[in-house]
From TrEMBL:
PROSITE patterns: CYTOCHROME_P450. The lineage of its organism: Eukaryota, Fungi, Dikarya, Ascomycota, Pezizomycotina. It comes from Delitschia confertaspora ATCC 74209. Heme binds at C421. Its cofactor is heme. Gene3D superfamilies: Cytochrome P450. Signal peptide: none annotated. This is Cytochrome P450 monooxygenase-like protein.
């Protein structure tokens, strides 16, 4: 019996390999042969959470269109973002976005119609009117962050930690109307540690997400699987507490709960609860971890290129640090943030799509329908065809030196089109406020014992960007009381 079963499996896998190498519609696309045979090639290459480097390497070796899986193409073309999410395309999100199933949200939903239906709630939650409600709370929280840093008395500060505390507390205020108190206590919430471990667990299997789904379903006793499940439970508990509260303060949950009430009557309690829980998980992960990466990066670049501190201070002197509209109009401030987002995008790879039935054209090459396609931001943001001196940090390229940007389409840290990150405005608001308030109070520099290559050398791709350690000294300015 085992002999026959072994023969069957051998024949099955042999036929699959022959088809994928010799008869598949993607057979003529360049790429590693093992990648054409199995996605386990990609899982193995990304095992150290460095998928962004894997993608950069295959781009350099194979060109702009590379076969990176049995039915997958990676696009390294300035128009990659538009090809995936631009107007009037028929692309759907890949199965990775079922990771929260049966929960759903605008971030973790695949069907275009469902996505459009869910988007209105989030649009209200992050609208300009809602953001005006959040801004004073965020401004006050940044003041607390400033006092926290001052308490170190010019001793070295691990920027990764303090920006983690801030981004998680900020997420709590904006999403649940709740202060998790990490800045005040200078301690990390256990759930944040679990979230990081869970994202680290998923990083190598992002391109074979069925492995994670299998583990969630059948191996809940595994430590890293338990971390993910506990993270989800934490979010569900927070939104349920918010559901029962009588607070009148506006937060994102205000809109999530309104949707929940409507859906409970229209579609039933189970459906409404899955949406409510999906929204809570999405808001927590996307609302804290991505902003955290950006905040760490901006302090790294300010320490590495201190000349920009003077330029930013001169510009910031023209506005009040609580003037949200004024900060959004400052050329060098926003260019500095853009350049940090270009070199360390919060989501470096992933965000794959399944091509619609008509496929797509990339220049004069046709990618057939039904194929999984990715356009890794980390590589697109460094394309020499789109940016002069692509690896150099030059904020001026975004306003006074436009010649250094040859193709703006390659820049898409928040995505493009209807699937653009809906929390973009809040993330940028938090980053502007942190820069404006802290720069007016502190000069920042690397700790003398810190190796400046550490942050980028140890950068990890774990669904969101995880920068390496950053140790800085924040020295109070003498002209600030």
């Amino acid at each position: 019996m085992f002999k026959w079963f072994g023969s069957y499996l051998t024949s099955l896998f042999a036929s699959m390999i022959i088809y994928r190498l010799c008869f598949h519609p993607l057979k003529n696309f360049p790429g590693p042969k093992l990648a054409a045979v199995t996605k386990f090639w990609h899982v193995y290459r990304s095992r150290n959470s460095t998928n962004y480097l894997v993608m950069e390497e295959i781009h350099k070796q194979y060109g702009n269109l590379v076969r990176t899986g049995p039915n997958e193409i990676s696009i390294f073309h300035p128009n990659g973002h538009e090809l995936l999410d631009g107007a009037n395309n028929e692309n759907n999100r890949d199965v990775w976005y079922d990771i929260l199933h049966p929960r759903k949200s605008i971030i973790f939903i695949r069907n275009v119609e469902d996505h459009d239906e869910r988007r209105s709630t989030w649009s209200y939650a992050v609208s300009s009117k809602a953001t005006k409600e959040y801004a004073p709370r965020l401004h006050s929280l940044v003041k607390d962050l400033s006092d926290c840093i001052a308490s170190y008395n010019s001793h070295p500060v691990k920027v990764n930690d303090i920006m983690s505390w801030f981004s998680f507390d900020a997420m709590g205020h904006v999403t649940f109307g709740e202060d998790f108190g990490m800045i005040q206590s200078k301690t990390i919430q256990p759930v944040l540690i679990k979230q990081r471990r869970a994202l680290g667990m998923m990083a190598p299997v992002n391109d074979a997400i069925w492995l994670a789904r299998f583990a969630f379903q059948y191996l809940p006793f595994l430590h890293t699987v338990r971390d993910w499940l506990d993270t989800a439970i934490f979010c569900e508990e927070r939104i349920q507490l918010r559901l029962r509260s009588k607070t009148k303060t506006m937060d994102m949950s205000t809109f999530f709960i309104r949707e929940f009430d409507d859906l409970s009557q229209q579609r039933g309690l189970k459906f409404a609860t899955d949406i409510l829980h999906g929204n809570a998980i999405s808001a927590m992960v996307a609302g804290s971890d991505t902003t955290r990466a950006t905040l760490i990066s901006v302090w790294y670049f300010l320490s590495k290129y201190p000349e920009h501190q003077h330029k930013l201070l001169s510009e910031l002197a023209t506005v009040n640090d609580g003037d949200v509209s004024g900060l959004s109009r400052l050329l060098h401030l926003n260019a500095f943030i853009n350049e940090a987002l270009r070199l360390v995008p919060p989501a470096m790879t992933g965000e794959s799509r399944i091509m619609g039935p008509k496929g797509l054209w990339v220049d004069d090459i046709w990618v057939p329908g039904g194929v999984k396609v990715t356009a890794p931001k980390y590589v697109l943001h460094r394309l020499s065809s789109a940016f002069k001196y692509p690896d150099d940090f030059i904020p001026e390229r975004w306003y006074s030196r436009p010649d250094l940007v040859m193709d703006k389409r390659a820049f898409g840290p928040f995505g493009v089109g209807a699937r653009q990150c809906i929390g973009k405005s809040i993330s940028l608001l938090e980053t502007r406020l942190v820069l404006a308030i802290l720069l007016k109070r502190f000069r920042v520099r690397f700790d003398p014992s810190y190796d400046p290559t550490t942050l980028l050398r140890d950068l990890q791709d774990e669904v969101t960007a995880q920068p390496g350690e950053l140790w800085c000294i924040f020295e109070p300015r003498k002209d600030v009381s």
